[in-house]
Amino acid sequence: MQTHSGxxxxxxxxxxxxxxxxxxxxxxxxxYYVDRVEIVHNVSMFPYPQVAIYALAMSLYWxxxxxxxxxxxxxxxxxxxxxxxxxxxxxxxxxPNNYFVTWIFMxxxxxxxxxxxxxxxxxxxxxRMAYGRGWSMNILAPDLIAFSSVAFLRYAIESEQRxxxxxxxxxxxxxxxxxxxINPHFLFNTLNSVYGMTLLGKKDAPDFxxxxxxxxxYILYESSAERVLLEKEVAxxxxxxxxxxxxxxxxxxxxASQGIDSSTMxxxxxxxxxxxxxxxxxxxxFRENAQIDSKITLQENRLYFEIANDVHDNPGMLKGxxxxxxxxxxxxxxxxxxxxxxxxxxxxxxxxxxxxxxxLNLS
Length: 363
Description:
Blueprint: H1 12-34, H2 50-59, H3 62-75, H4 81-92, H5 94-108, H6 112-131, H7 137-200, H8 205-220, E1 228-229, H9 230-247, E2 251-258, E3 265-266, H10 272-280, E4 290-299, E5 302-310, H11 324-336, E6 341-346, E7 351-359
Parallel strand pairs: 2-4
Antiparallel strand pairs: 1-3, 4-5, 5-7, 6-7
Helix pairs in contact: 1-2, 1-7, 3-4, 3-7, 5-6, 7-8, 7-9, 7-11, 8-9, 10-11
């Protein structure tokens, strides 16, 4: 599931709707009606602009069709009502609409040619009103096609926007749920570290607690964002390694970073479970002078992360990383970087190695 920066189609239905009204109603329907006028004084390429207003007024009732009736039918999935709506607007409402609009224009217009045109049109619509039948399908059919296209485009765009919002909300709920698991996981690990140092009576425990406080501040506040600066994430990892280096006396931790800039963003805490598991499952629990090596490199906006920890000589004594942390990081990688990451794990040669590369380019 990919993240989106936002749909940029919100104005498309309105642009298309205006285009229909300008090009179809203002041009095609205007030409249809003006051809029915007996032009006496043809003084311009656009005779009788009042007829364009008449064409507009004759079409206004279609607003109810594509802005109210069709959207309601589609939203409630009562598609069988579409046929009824079409028959209603084409065969029923068109007659009284044309009758009253033409009567109003006949009363308001004093120009001789146009008055004759409106009177002639009104006579036709009056007969249709009296008999309840008679339709100009050569104009009603294009009306139906044009305004139906507006209705369906509006519905398609609105549906896509609703789906995107639902997808976005579901994505955020999943991310929040994963973070809710990661944060306590980190807290339990660091509290265990404090407990271990106090048992050993180490003098640098206050400095350790201060570092832990900074790390917890990052976990609880800054990591709540969808993306954080990579340099801040790297600084947090450095601090975390320093905390563990103080707590553990029988492991050598080496960490290096290269090419980290001040603008690249990354999903927060995406690497932490690998680091936690390297410390939790390392050989330092069984022998002296164990080793953990880790490196983060940023090259052409692609992140390369490596971490390797010694493991017990007997693989059955200490298995590789498991638990909530590793499950979460795989789930978050799929959510945040689908198809944009490569994760490899090597358990050979008495070491547990993780290789992860992530394309950090915004999609």
